Amino acid sequence: MERDAPPLSSTLFMDGVGEVVLTLRPDGISWKPLDAGVVASSCLGMDFRSKIQTEIKFSDVYGVELIDSGLVHNGSWNIGTFRWGGDSEAHRFVVHGFLGERGSASPWVLVAYTFGHKYLKICQKWVEHIEACIKNEPARPRSLLVLVHPLCGKGKGRKSWDTVAPIFCRAKVQTKVTVTQRAGHAYNIVSSLSDRELRSFDGIVAVGGDGLFNEVLNGLLASRHEASYPPSPTELSFAGCGEQSQQCRDNTNGRCSSNDVNDMASETSLTSDDHEPLLTSSMPNGTDIPKSTTKNEECNAANQAPSTPFPNDWFRLGIIPAGSTDAIVLSTTGIRDPVTSALNIVLGRKMLLDIAQVVRWKASPSPRDLPSVHYAASFAGYGFYGDVIKESEKYRWMGPIRYDYAGTIVFLQHRSYEAEIAYLVEKADPVTIPTSMAETGTQPSQALQKSPSRLICCENCAVCAETATTANIYSESSRWVKSKGRFLSIGAAIMSCRNERAPDGLVADAHLADGFLHLILVRDCPRPYYLWHLTQLTKKGSDPLNFKFVEHHKTRAFTFISSQDESVWNLDGEMLKACRVSVQVFRGLINLFASGPVV
Ligand SMILES: Nc1ncnc2c1ncn2[C@@H]1O[C@H](COP(=O)(O)OP(=O)(O)OP(=O)(O)O)[C@@H](O)[C@H]1O
User: Which of 148, 151, 182, 188 maximizes ligand 1 atoms within 8 Å of its Cβ, making it the mutation to test the pocket?
Assistant: First the structure.
């Protein structure tokens, strides 16, 4: 007889096990074989058998679905022998979940448990019930925009999406999928979404590498993030640093007063417009493009504010790793696995991520040369880092190995660059160690010995969760410090920047959402010392920053002026030509479908 009441406990057939008593608990379901045996599960056509799996929590269930009626196999493994108990024809439903050890950096493994009953209604009730329970789990997405870079990595973007697409389907997440056709395509799609279109999605997923994610990030924030620019390098250079630079500001919440601009005009031709945010929409690679305007955006423009501003607490970005380095995924999940990342997305995992705003200033007298704004999630680097990206473009045909080849060439060239940096120092910052200028040597500096115990960012990180609001970069609690000289490289790590070559990343203890970046200045030094520094980066547990020629400053903003006519920056692995740059970090500017690395 069919029943209408929701089942709290029923006897069903479980595929590969036989008859079980299935029980609904507040936090999941459990099953107990009537015939004491073992439990089996299957995944993507493969069988995973476990003697201990007799339950699954709703937090580990990503989908449940009715399937066609058919055979439920009643066989089970029993101490190495297959015991066949006959199959039963039944109505069926499948519970899709995953097995993953908490606190372990191994990939999560998909599991599917199939149950059957002779009455369809019993199966329907179980499905409805489990669905209702998983809906109570923290905000799982319903609709996503998915952008697939088909050529990323070794051309594995499409294949990576094909691997994980069934997960989205089983989780009943609607996906609008676009395969990119060229560099800049993802940027165009995202930046031209009207607010209404954006609000129809819970997030955007990039299937590709850090470069595709950077395009999505820039497209999203180009017209939706409103903030004052950081000071221009020439402004700080003109005003000098330290307390003076604070005094050159009025009370316009960080914007320069017209006096500042007039004062600077003789040096750089900056106009007051240069200091208005969001005047220019730029491609991540530095090509300025006209922003397409939708009706909605016109409306927004009239209201002077986008109706979906950033930061907000609902819209999330996700990455399915398929690129050549995948530093953002490695630094935010601890593992480079498309299935684990897809599960993080459909399960609605959410964490805040700091984003760096990189403003490129031009020195040309043309009033059309407005500053252009770019965003980076993981890294901004100059010198060695910029040169490697530039050189590697010549060898694109080699695939990901071109970075090793280009890195070797650039290392052998051993170029250093004259530059002037000004960085913001927190008056109470224990990590900023302004080491002596232009000092090189083989003896490790004492910098890190002076730093407090190094807390590595992880799931539920206490540092990132601190509610203390990050002070405005113009607050009284900070001052600008200048550093000038010849540098082999200048790197700004917004996150640890872990990758397969650098298992701890550039800065092992960088946090994902503390509002700081780590400025690493590598001063000109003999080539063997630089090699020593680089090789330390490749070793787990080493200390690549503990050299006298390396300065490490934890900061919220810095400016840069190069004395070169052409300077190349590396933003999240993409090239940006810029001789004058200001960078500031925005704490938790976006939400990511992730929960932090397992370390
Ligand atoms: N269909 C496409 N054809 C060519 N380039 C594309 C396409 N889609 C995106 N791109 C661009 O390719 C660049 C690299 O993308 P991504 O980082 O995702 O892959 P990757 O394999 O890790 O790349 P790389 O090895 O260059 O770092 C980005 O600048 C991105 O904008």
Answer: 151
> The complex's ipTM?
0.97
d(CA 479, CA 279): 28
Ligand 1 centre to CA of 152 (Å) is 5
Determine which one of 210, 274, 337, 509 is catalytic.
Answer: 210
d(CA 377, CA 389): 17
Query: Is 179 a pocket residue for ligand 1 (Cβ < 6 Å)?
Result: no
| Cα-based torsion angle of the residue sequence 527, 378, 241, 250 in order, rounded to the nearest 10 degrees | 170
The reply to whether ligand 1 has any atom less than 6 angstroms from the CB of 63 is no
pLDDT single digits (tens) 535-552: 999 999 999 999 999 999
Q: Where are the domains of the chain?
A: 9-135, 139-227+277-349, 353-590
Distance between CA atoms of 212 and 179, rounded to whole angstroms?
A: 11
Secondary structure in 3-state letters for 554-593: EECEEEEEECCCCCEEEECCEEEECCEEEEEEEEEEEEEC
Classify domain 9-135 by CATH architecture: Roll (2.30)
Is 152 a pocket residue for ligand 1 (Cβ < 6 Å)?
A: yes
Atom of ligand 1 nearest to the CA of 323: 22
Dump pLDDT digits (tens) for 275-291. Answer: 333 333 444 444 333 33
Look up residue 182 and give its DSSP letter: S
| Sequence-ordered list of residues with C-beta below 8 angstroms from that of 509, at least 6 positions apart, any chain | 454, 455, 456, 457, 496
- Residue 170 phi/psi, 5° resolution? -65, -30
- Choosing among 3.90.650.10, 3.40.50.360, 3.40.50.10330, 3.40.50.150, the CATH entry for 139-227+277-349 is 3.40.50.10330
Q: Is the peptide bond before 528 cis (omega within 30 degrees of 0)?
A: no
**C-alpha 324 to ligand 1 mean position (Å):** 9
Residue whose pair of structure tokens reads 């790793």 in the numeric block: 321
Task: Specify whether 210 is catalytic.
Answer: yes
Global pTM reads 0.83
Write out pLDDT tens, residues 154-213: 899 999 999 999 999 999 999 999 999 999 999 999 999 999 999 999 999 999 999 999
Residue whose token pair is 């010549």: 394
Asked if residue 562 lies in contact with residue 363, where contact means CB atoms within 8 angstroms, the answer is: no
Residue 16 CB-density burial (10 A; 0-12 exposed, 13-18 middle, 19+ buried): buried
Do 9-135 and 353-590 share a fold? no
551 close to 586: Cβ distance less than 8 angstroms: no
Is there an atom of ligand 1 within 6 Å of 427 CB? Answer: no
Class at the top of the CATH hierarchy for domain 353-590: mainly beta
| Cβ atoms of residues 594 and 346 within 8 Å | no
CA dist 527 and 414 (Å) reads 7
d(CA 212, CA 170): 26
- Ligand 1 pocket check for 156: Cβ under 6 Å: no
Q: Residue 468 has what pLDDT?
A: 61
